[in-house]
Task: inverse folding
């Protein structure tokens, strides 16, 4: 079965018009642009022959009618502020095009399509996929709000979704979940590969290290007598970088994403300093080792230069592992299309990390030009976009053939 590449690209371009900002898109969850895009997608799903609706958290969900078994394909259509036109959206339109192709071919089995709400976390990260697998509580909704202070519950009512039932994964129906995505990094491009098969989605932890010193006049206080929280932070960050290199795995990454000095004046010794640390890996044991290393560095630093040092864990997400059998099918589908896939982890989070605990799941990547994403410069070659969807339809066909 061959997809209609021109139709695929046309839908992607049409979807990108909702919230267009230059070459990118600004379509935050439950904004006017996001709501309009969801309505557009609902109509496209219905025109394709799917039984579609928008559920109580904003998921747009379409089912192939008259079938008992289906592969579900999806991603998200919301964006980060001034983000790219393909991040998430491509995976949803892949699902739509694969469903149309299979329906038009009159094949047995079906494809269900979903656009999960608020993957990017305007209110609550991976809101829609968490709801879809039954991992979202009412208290989660009650606590969530956006950066402007609007409550998620109010936003759902404003959008017209709040009183709808929530769609759910159906283990009796859904034999697998597939998600297509741009890589959002440089590996595929660097290695000259056009398809990536994801083995795991990394886990992520964030810690906040805080340094408590004493504010003094920066011109009159001798260096040896200062309790300089800022200087201790800088020394700590240098030391921690070396320590983490010694314990990291081959796929480990870490980042010092924010530094803040209080009071932040050129002529005042900082009384307080904060360092936000994020680290990721596909193995919990490696993440545990990295956390222990951070805590050991804090213990070493504590009290040095008269500065008290402490660290707290702010957030943690477990790694998710894709189904090896589904990954093998994606590789076979890529080979049928004449390309060799690169087997690789995903360094970014995706909705698939929630689906993977409930149903056999797989992800495929296509190259991101220059490795760019979460920016209006994000782009991928049209030929790669089409190839990825062709691999996706062949993957769905092979998976559905196993249930015939």
Result:
């Amino acid at each position: 079965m061959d997809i209609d590449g021109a139709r695929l690209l046309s839908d992607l371009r049409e979807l990108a018009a909702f919230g267009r900002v230059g070459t990118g898109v600004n379509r935050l969850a439950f904004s006017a642009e996001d709501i309009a895009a969801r309505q557009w997608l609902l109509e496209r799903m219905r025109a394709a022959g799917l039984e579609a609706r928008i559920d109580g958290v904003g998921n747009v969900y379409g089912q192939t009618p008259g079938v008992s078994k289906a592969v579900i394909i999806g991603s998200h259509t919301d964006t980060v502020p001034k983000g790219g036109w393909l991040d998430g959206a491509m995976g949803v339109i892949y699902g739509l095009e694969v469903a149309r192709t299979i329906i038009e071919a009159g094949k047995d089995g079906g494809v269900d399509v979903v656009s999960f709400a608020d993957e990017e976390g305007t209110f609550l990260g991976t809101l829609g996929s968490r709801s879809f697998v039954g991992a979202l509580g009412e208290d989660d909704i009650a606590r969530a709000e956006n950066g402007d202070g609007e409550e998620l519950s109010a936003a759902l009512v404003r959008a017209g979704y709040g009183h709808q039932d929530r769609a759910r994964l159906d283990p009796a129906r859904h034999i697998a979940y597939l998600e297509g995505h741009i890589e959002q990094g440089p590996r595929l491009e660097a290695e000259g590969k056009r398809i990536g098969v994801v083995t795991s989605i990394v886990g992520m932890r964030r810690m906040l290290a805080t340094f408590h010193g004493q504010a003094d006049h920066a011109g009159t206080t001798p260096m040896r007598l200062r309790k300089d929280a800022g200087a201790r932070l800088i020394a700590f960050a240098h030391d921690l970088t070396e320590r983490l290199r010694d314990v990291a795995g081959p796929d480990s990454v870490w980042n010092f994403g924010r530094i803040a000095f209080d009071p932040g004046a050129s002529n005042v010794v900082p009384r307080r300093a904060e360092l936000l640390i994020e680290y990721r890996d596909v193995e919990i044991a490696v993440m545990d080792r990295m956390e222990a290393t951070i805590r050991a560095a804090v213990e070493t630093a504590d009290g040095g230069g008269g500065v008290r040092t402490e660290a707290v864990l702010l957030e943690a997400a477990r790694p998710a592992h894709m189904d090896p059998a589904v990954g093998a099918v994606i590789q076979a589908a890529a080979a049928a299309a004449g390309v060799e896939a690169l087997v690789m982890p995903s360094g970014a989070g995706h909705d698939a990390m929630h689906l993977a605990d409930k149903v056999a799941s797989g992800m495929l990547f296509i190259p991101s030009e220059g490795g760019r994403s979460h920016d209006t410069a994000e782009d991928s070659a049209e030929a790669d976009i089409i190839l990825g969807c062709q691999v996706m339809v062949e993957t769905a066909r092979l998976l559905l053939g196993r249930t015939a």
Observations:
- The chain is about 35% helix and 25% strand.
